[in-house]
Amino acid sequence: MKITIITATYNSSQTIAECIDSVNQQTHQDIEQIIIDGYSIDKTLEIIKSLPNRVIKVISERDKGIYDAMNKGIKLSTGKVIGILNSDDLYIDSKVIEKIASIFETTSADCVHADLYYVNKDDTSQIVRHWQTCDYVPGAFKKGWHPAHPTFFVRKEIYEKYGLFNLDFSLAADFELMLRFFERYHVTSIYLPEPIVRMRLGGATSKNITNIILQNIECYKAFKVNGIKVSLLYPLYRLLPKLKQFFHA
Q1: DSSP string covering 159-171, please?
Q2: End-to-end CA distance of the chain
C-alpha cells in the first residue's frame, strides 16, 4: 500500500533535513513524500535537493498559506493513504509508517490517529507535552476532544468524497476538516495508542496568545459551518485537557 506524506515548507532550512530524514528512514517501502514550498528564499530547496529522500515531487510557488499547500499536495498524491508531516516535525522512529499501513491493510478504517509528543524546538529529545488521545466517540469534539493532526492518516477517497481543507480558516482548517469528517460524515477511525510524531513547539497557532484566541474562535466557527450546535463554554472544554497534557509529559 502506497502512503503519501505531504510536507508544506516555507523558509524551513533549519528543520527540513531532519523531517525528510525521518521519512527516509521508514521501513515501509511504498512511500512518496510530496513537498509543497511557499517560494522559500532561504536554502530550503537546496537542502531538499541535496538529501537522499523519497520525494516524488517538489513544487515551489507562492500560495495562500499552509492549508492551500496541503490541498495542492493532496491533489498531487498517488498514495491510497495520506498523512501530513510539517517541515519542523519528525516521526518518532522508523516503524511508524509500517504500523499505519498495516492497520489500513487489515481493516476497513477510513482514518487512523495516534498520540504525539510536543518537544523543545531546539532539542527534540526533550518532551514538553504528551498529547494522548483515545478512541473517538460521537460528540467527542464538543467536549474538547480531537486528534493531533500530524498523527491523522486518511484514505485519499475520503478527501475526494468529503472535501479538502477549508481556506476560510487560517489557523484551524485542520480542526474543521477533522470535525467535518468525524462529526458530520461519521468516518471510521482506529486509534493507535502510542506517540508517533515529535512536534516542535512554536507553530503558528501557539506562538502567541492572540493566535491562540483566534484559533479558538475559528474552532467555534467550525461547528457552525458544519451545522453542529456547541456550548459557549467550548473553549474551556478545549483548553482543560490540553493543560493536563503538560503535567503528563
Answers
A1: HHHH----TT-SS
A2: 33
| pLDDT tens profile 103-121 | 999 999 999 999 999 999 9
Phi-psi region of 96 (alpha: psi -120 to 50; beta: other; left: phi over 0): alpha
Domain span including residue 231: 3-247
Task: Please state, in angstroms and rounded to a whole number, the distance separating the CA atoms of residues 216 and 91.
Answer: 27
DSSP per residue, 121-147? SS-TTSEEEEE------TTGGGGT---
Distance between CA atoms of 185 and 161, rounded to whole angstroms? 10
CA angle 47, 51, 53 (to 5 degrees): 125
Nearest to 200 by CA among 126, 118, 116: 118
Q: Closest Cα to residue 35, out of 61, 7, 69?
A: 7
Confidence band of 46 (pLDDT split at 50, 70, 90): very high
Lookup: cell for 232:
459557549
pTM of the predicted model as reported, rounded to 2 decimal places: 0.92
Question: Residue 43 has which C-alpha cell?
Answer: 536554502
Residues in the chain: 249
Q: Which three three-digit cell numbers place residue 100?
A: 499505519
DSSP for 147-193, please give it: --GGG-EEEHHHHHHH----TT-SS-HHHHHHHIIIIIT---EEEEE
Alpha-carbon distance of 147 to 113, in angstroms, equals: 6
CATH of the domain at 70: 3.90.550.10
How many structural domains is the chain composed of? Answer: 1
